[in-house]
Amino acid sequence: MEYILNSLDGGILKIELNRPQKRNALTLDMYTQFADLLNTAQANPEIRVVLVSAAGDNYSAGK
């Protein structure tokens, strides 16, 4: 299962935390992937907006 989903559509980078069974708590791998996506967005002038959301009932929880 992929825990960080992303798509790019018309200058909007959509990032979704996808680990609802653990309340979308970030693992080290998820944190790294999330940071990489944000760095990509910063370096790409075509990306104008980053939209972050989460699957399930919780946005994100601690470990």
Helix and strand arrangement:
Elements: E1 4-9, E2 12-17, H1 28-43, E3 49-54
Parallel strand pairs: 2-3
Antiparallel strand pairs: 1-2
Shape designation: globular
Quickly count the domains. 1
CATH top level label: Alpha Beta
* SS class: alpha+beta
Distance between the termini: 19 Å
From the alpha-carbon coordinates, what is the Rg to the nearest angstrom?
Answer: 12 Å
CATH architecture classification name: 2-Layer Sandwich
Helical segment tally?
A: 1
Give a short overview.
The protein has 63 residues and is α+β, with helices and mostly antiparallel strands. Helices cover 25% and strands 29% of the residues. The chain has one domain (4-54): GMP Synthetase, Chain A, domain 3, CATH 3.30.300.
Structure description:
The radius of gyration is 12 Å and the shape is globular. The mean pLDDT is 95. With 63 residues, it is an alpha+beta fold. It has a single domain (4-54), classed as 2-Layer Sandwich (GMP Synthetase, Chain A, domain 3), CATH 3.30.300.220. The protein has one helix at 28-43, and strands at residues 4-9, 12-17, 49-54.
Considering the chains and any ligands shown, give keywords for the structure.
alpha+beta; GMP Synthetase, Chain A, domain 3; three-stranded mixed sheet; 25% helix; 63 residues
